[in-house]
Amino acid sequence: MSGWLAIAGLGPGAAELVTPEVTQALAQATDLIGYAPYVARVPERVGLTRHGSDNREELDRARLALHLAAEGRRVIVVSSGDPGVFAMAAAVFEAVDCGDPSWRNLDIRVLPGISAMFAAAARAGAPLGHDFCAINLSDNLKPWDLIERRLRLAAQAGFVIALYNPSSQARHWQLGAALECLRRHLPPTTPTVFGRAVGRADETIAVTTLQSADASAADMATLIIIGSAETRLVPRPGHAPLVYTPRSALA
Amino acid sequence: MSGWLAIAGLGPGAAELVTPEVTQALAQATDLIGYAPYVARVPERVGLTRHGSDNREELDRARLALHLAAEGRRVIVVSSGDPGVFAMAAAVFEAVDCGDPSWRNLDIRVLPGISAMFAAAARAGAPLGHDFCAINLSDNLKPWDLIERRLRLAAQAGFVIALYNPSSQARHWQLGAALECLRRHLPPTTPTVFGRAVGRADETIAVTTLQSADASAADMATLIIIGSAETRLVPRPGHAPLVYTPRSALA
User: How far apart are CA B175 and CA B224, in angstroms?
Assistant: First the structure.
């Protein structure tokens, strides 16, 4: 019995952005667990049992993974992007914290991945070039007031702001409210990037301004980057402008 | 003449954390440019000219890369971690912005990598499990007052805080001042992680509290994560505690 649990990031979608560490763990695992669309990214293989689940069942999924690892299985839980960013790693450790004390002795590893904000930033230029923050716009697990407070303080701090989970079928108004909040604290011309399905066949990158940003253009697969007051555009003939935030900053 | 310029992230140090996309670009390049210790990570190869340079010469390095790509060379600029996070991508686009207008027509791509905060977080558990920010503690290119202001606002926002470049041979007092600043706004028991040389042979991960954090324990290779008021520890027999920040948050 030498079970283990690896919590792995598959990156934004392209196979060439999956680290060799994750590929190796996938090859050794006996059980694959995750939100069904992420499980579907991993090729089927004899000896690998697949446990796809719905999006809202993170804690159940975490407990299943821990049970199987405790039974001696080699279990890999997959997330999109990095597993430590608004993904499964926190859910697994929450389950360990509140669960069977013997789970604390399990061999649990987190295998990092390329998070969506870095993939989107890379396509746009270098918008995260200086101090930045990442905010999850979902108010399923925290009050909206806290999200607005973080947006306001982030704008006052001059952080570039990456917005995860801006919209979903069940959450329609949150991104519009977030943009309204940011417009009260940042210049209307602040460069804004909508990156959708980055690294996948249907990828789109749109560069706009905070004033013109259209909340209805985002969905679950969209990552939004709001620049700081220092973020600049470099126009290019025949292409979208490059977006970058200089390394230097004034007061 | 079909030159290109790729700005690539080598990740924190381990070969199994270099993406296949970067490995492929390294295999096709004619010229390798970067801070000498990062250039040294790439194996020598016939047909690949190496241009290592000092740490402080980012803009010169960027201009050299653009000149060579404009001459038709296949150029790869390497950074540790992700090239868009306190690294070479912003320097290259700054050089494009201020340089020869023909550089805007070049084929320039950014190839993301695993940033130090995700590698350190993965080793500690899931400390970045909720909203977080990344702050560069170097005051070489921005005033210290701005850094203190960002630390204060980040603490007030309840962000988990990743501190990059906490210390160097030329910068001794900054991390101590940053910890003092954070102690005025966060509980003394706030979990704090010092990750050093993560993914390399001499890796160390130390879990402490904000009150007990010792600035002299950090150097250039250290990445520091300061939890939020919600970050928790899971004690484990015979191991360092797991550190995670729950996905849910109260007001």
Answer: 10
